[in-house]
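lol ok so funny story. i was supposed to be doing the assay writeup but got distracted and ended up predicting the structure for this chain instead. priorities right. anyway since i did it might as well share w the group, maybe its usefull for someone
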Amino acid sequence: GNGWEDREPPSSPSAPPSPSCPLMVLTNSDPELPSSLAAPLHQLYLRLLVDQRFKGRFSRAFARCYSTLAKSVRCGGSRRESTLLTLSVQFLNRQALVLPLVQSDGLLSELMGAVDALLEEGLSARPALAPRPGAAVHHTIAQRRYIPFVTDLRYVLSIPDVPELVARSPKLLEDWAGTLEKLQGLDPQRREREAHVDWEHGDWAHAFNLHISLSSLFDPLARAPLADPDLAAPAVLLCARAAAQASRRAELHPAPGQDPAGGAESLCS
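and the output, tada:
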């Protein structure tokens, strides 16, 4: 009613928010709050987000505390439906807010890092969780805890100019190629040479679901390279190198249950 909803937010201040400012402290400590406090606090945030000045300040605190919020979801400390990450849709789809967060607050690095950290944790535990071929998916992946991170990445990458910023950043491309490298052989399957239809495990579905979720990012990521051939070569080379490195590593260090002689098929290759 006061017209705030139709106004563009003011330019983000050049100085980052102080770690000791109340909004940063509240955002950073949100995973530690009991639900009796967190739920009404989140409702208060929703009401205040109609004020564009508050939305701009909250978005900066959110971006700078993202790794803390993501870690809580990744480690099971926060349920997806009750975490502060559910508020991201309120501002990560606004170009005037997102571009400063990407350029000044490292938002893309935080989002990509959240996906990478989840994969790193999940894959590091695979040998201990593989009592049989194929049963090597960590609970963070099986429970699809990556969904809020991938969703936020999709919001941000759908903003005009953001895909070009990714394509022009060697570090972001290198980091993302490293994440894609981790996906190679996520569900290695031994090639069976005898009858095996009596029993089949269903763990392949976790790798399949992760692959489908991350595939939603490919179109926005490819938008800038497809529009500008000068941006295409670095992205293609990095991804090709990541795939080659992963393939070579799989040959030298087969995953549990993989048959080096017979080969293995990957649902996330």
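The longest helix spans residues 229-252. The two ends are 51 Å apart (CA to CA).
back to the writeup now i swear
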